[in-house]
Amino acid sequence: MSNENSKLKILTNGILAENPVLRLVLGTCPTLAVTTMASNGIGMGLAATFVLLCSNIVISALRKIIPDQVRIPAYISVIAGFVSVVQMLVKAFVPSLDASLGVYLPLIVVNCIILGRAEMFASKNNVLDSALDGIGMGIGFTITLTIMGSIREILGAGTWMAGLDGLLPFLPAGFKIQILPASIDPFSLMTSAPGGFFVFGILMAAAVYLTTPKAAKTAEGGEA
Amino acid sequence: MALKLASIFFTMILVDNYVLAKFLGICPFLGVSKKLDSAVGMSLAVTFVMVVATAATWPIQMFLLTPTDAAGNLKWDMGYLQTIVFILIIAILVQLLENVLKKYIPALYKSLGVYLPLITTNCTILGVTILNIDNGYSFIEAIVCAAGAGIGFLVAMVLFSGVRRRVEQAVTPKCFEGLPITLVAAAITSLSFMGFGGIVESIFGV
Fold first, then answer.
1. Do A107 and B126 touch (CB under 8 A)?
2. A29 CB near a chain B CB, below 8 Å?
3. Residue from A93, A90, A57, A88 nearest A75 by CA
4. Among all residues of chain A, which has the CA nearest to that of B195?
5. pLDDT digit string, tens, across residues A166-190
6. Residues B137-154, buried b or exposed e (16+ Cβ, 10 A)?
């Protein structure tokens, strides 16, 4: 029972308690860059999750073989291999996502979440735990990107999930949900660079607020 | 020619600033910008590696991965190996650079040395090498673009380390302390860089 519990904990760890983006502050570049639209966030999150899962499994399986001195180059080669696989898959099956992610797709190689988890987790734990950790971290990353993409897209363009038809082929072409009525001018600053920093800051503050125990909060509130 | 190079150089610094407009290299931007001298050291190391990495990866892409004959047709296409080859070259290059600096220029090694290992996983380096290929730059243009990107990184780091000193002394709500308020400050810094949009085109007329 306790064993199952710990497995579940590894899986859920990445979603809020150790959310890679908001709590560990890893992988900030793709977080800020691709979240101009919610569908880009989902695509980027899924691509990174795939790489994270595969590289965690392989690195964990090889953890006793890879000599300590050359572990970073070895990890990077493994990760770069899987990133190339993802790049080819995305180019072949989701060309619209490839166009909107652009250079950030190959840059998954240097996404610190993946190297960070390889170093912090996969190199010390068995294959199953590492796979669970990869999935959990990946889901946490995907959720964060989707939330950020949603906020920026709704405020900045007035729509939600535009371009999702590229990811899910059964949706009609040009699919989008109009959230703000078209008569309201969208706050286009949100989809450009400053909006990215701003929303990220606000979300990070929200994560700190939500994970601080209530007692501590009221105590601080009293002092203020 | 010179005009085009100057235009690329200043576009990379002001308009397409890697940190503030393209979101590359955010990790060192947030991590190392606390103190002015470490911000400068890191940026100089990044600029140096960027230029050397571009000088190394551009010929490899053009002559090994996707070489073309005189008529411009591809002789063979190994472009799919780009990611793996580039990151390995950068990793080797950084290691080599560290050893060379240690042996021959110990003074420079002392000031840049601690930042060098961090640079392998700095996405600006891989980013600038790949974007140079994607944009179809010639060798000289690619080198100038890499230098501009490095100087742009330096400008952003130095400016932001100043902003950050003020932010750190400000009284903020508890949950905004530390990184969140820093990010909001970065948003305002990046807003000021948006004002440069179009300025390079109107000066150089390219």
1. yes
2. yes
3. A57
4. A194
5. 777 777 777 778 877 777 777 878 8
6. beeebbbbbbbbbbbbbb
